[in-house]
Amino acid sequence: MSTRQRLASWLKTKSPEDRRLILARVGFTTDDDVTPQDLARLLLQPRAALALARFCTRPQHQALSAVAWLAAQRHGPLLDLWHDGDPVTRAVPRADVLDLLAGDDPALRDHAAATLDALADMALVLPPHADHVIVSTGVHAHLAETAGLGRPAAELIGLHFNAPEVHAIAEALGFPKARTREDAERNVLDLLTDQERVRALLAQAPASARQWLLEIIGSGSRVLTHAYQARGVFGYHQVLKYAFRPGGSGDPDTDWLAARGLLLPAGLDDTAEVPIEVAVAVLGELRVPFTPEPPRPPSGLPDAVGADGSAQAAATAALSQIERVLAACAGQPPALRKAGGLAVRDTRRIAKAAGVAEEVARLWLDLAMQAGLLGLHAEPVQRPKGHRGKLPDPVVSLLPKPEYDDWLQRSPAERLTPIIATWATIPAVYTFWPEEAGTPVAIIEPDDPYAVGIRSAVLDALAALPPGKGVSADGLPYVTERAAWHRPLHFAESGADDDLVSAVLREAELLGVVAGGALTGVGRAVRDLLLSGAAWTSPEPALTAALTAMLPPAQATAFFQADLTAVVRGMPGPELAELLDDVADRESEGHAVVWRFSGSTVRRAFDRGHEADALLARLAEVAEAPLPQPLKYLIKDTARTHGRVRVVRSGCCLRSDDEALVEELARSAALRTLGLRKIAPTVLISARGEEETLARLRAAGYTPALESETGAAIVERAARRRA
């Protein structure tokens, strides 16, 4: 039976959910069941195995690297990635893997055995599992050199040193001046490959240098250092040669080790490597780094009491801000640049309308786009009569999609669910924008293959905190270190650092996934979904339940105060929010949302078709107590002056029963560009269209109303457009 057949038989014992999770980690998502045969064929492809390995923790990655290294020593290098036969031909004894990882330490051997079993559950160690360890050719090819074992001293010295450096090391080791490079190199290698002589040499070393050497070996045998400088490329194979840097590396311990050949150039700039013979002499046996225990949380962590309350305020504010961002796109759709993304001025306009920072506006725009609430709409270009040339490219605008109208009518939890579900699985950290990436722009294609793994690892790190504790800014290095333990390949390949982890935490806090440096109930739900794979297939039930438990139901009433503010305790329902947005400006939000009334906001409501009596009646319906007198006076006083000037749709005319006002308008210098001319004591005509006439009158401080040809008032609402 071939390895693929055995793997397919083993996969038959797994549930459809387990198979879909393995498939998702390879990079495919589906709600349908996948056959064991198809999945086995996919998992044996080199690229799929490497994709699965990216989801390994540090000890799992170390174990796979140890298997690949042992296979390379026993069976030679892998010459053909695709046609090198069945992976079983490169199997290594399980006992040898345990020896390489844990030596004779019983507790460590138990950890190593459990790690191999976990890798078998992930389909990275292939069946049979009892006596031998088999991994795919993709693991052999990509991880054989990541076991943290240095190369032989003879290889490193021969590759990267010229004669002067070899003679310098021999002299530092106490050998007499040799006649040739070969004699000096032989003396050096005789010492470095003799464990007793290496230990005797280290016994003479400063204690700090011995400790530093142990730390380098324990972290993978390589270290960044300025001990060497490149001397140029030599030889047929174009190998880079190095010399000792004048003045040293700046670290006495590193210089002591380098001078005696205990630390040699690795062939990468500013990187040195401990030869494998030296590591074996120090450890007393051949071992690879194996760290089964993750970093422990630091002591003195701050309390995260009230985290769910803070998360409630953050989630409420996020939902309110997203609504206003979408409303701004509906009211004045921004156009996409030819180079892609939104223009900075459009993003700033939307941010100002939503009352948020530009960075936050970009995040909401991109998440809403990926969640299917925003879409692109290309206006067709009409060909002018007689035109035969090439038409200009259509203008592509960003508009809400038809789904947006249904989304507005849902409960707060149901509205926030698709936003958080999208954030959890989107391959991008939108608020992380390095300086070298240029000016940040909204509406970009997410293309970071490491983002989801890093996000999941950050949530894993927070889940390990003691109950009731969170991390502050001082605890950020711990979060990064712990997250890198959970996803070492993601961090190593992407170069992720504290700045990226900080951006992930910032986004999580904005959405209520994290509060006070600790996971909230919603955050725990997101983490569970990512671990189970359901984040890609069916996240809605778990997320909606967690959000419903955290968010209060939408409020249908407001408390109106004598200082001309209205307060909604919690999340306002869509109808209440629309009414108050029409007649007042939002002033603050969080646990409560505050609107402020003014003469200009009430005039805006009248411009949109509200009438004083009906408006007061609607406000009274949603009021928790009788409306205060100052608000009633404001609405009635504004109504007395509103509409005294009437703009007629006659291309266009202005009329008013107030003859003095008509005369005032005709003589106004501020309205000179309208070309107003009085044709009757109560009628003016304008040289401009009705929209421009209305706009200029309002800019000059007047409060006109639009009227139809029949004399009926017209409600000024923009036509609703959808992508």
Written description of the protein model:
The structure is a single chain. The chain folds into five domains: 144 residues, no CATH class; 131 residues, no CATH class; 231 residues, no CATH class; 83 residues, no CATH class; 57 residues. Strands 19-20-18-17-21 form a five-stranded mixed β-sheet, covered by helices on one side. Strands 13-14-16-15 form a four-stranded antiparallel β-sheet. The chain has a three-stranded antiparallel β-sheet with strand order 1-3-2. Helix 13 packs across helix 14, helix 17 packs across helix 18 and helix 25 packs antiparallel against helix 26. It has 723 residues and is of the alpha+beta class. The chain is built from 32 helices and 21 strands. The mean pLDDT is 88. It starts with a helix and ends in a 16-residue tail after the last strand.
- Largest sheet, spatial ordering of strands: 19-20-18-17-21
Q: Report the biggest beta sheet as strand number plus sense, adding barrel if it closes.
A: 5 strands, mixed
Radius of gyration: 35 Å
Q: Calculate the terminal CA-CA distance, rounded to whole Å.
A: 55 Å
How many β-strand stretches?
Answer: 21
Keywords: ATP-binding, Helicase, Hydrolase, Nucleotide-binding
Pfam families: Helicase_C_3 (PF13625)
Domain Helicase XPB/Ssl2 N-terminal: 560-680
Protein name: Helicase-associated domain-containing protein
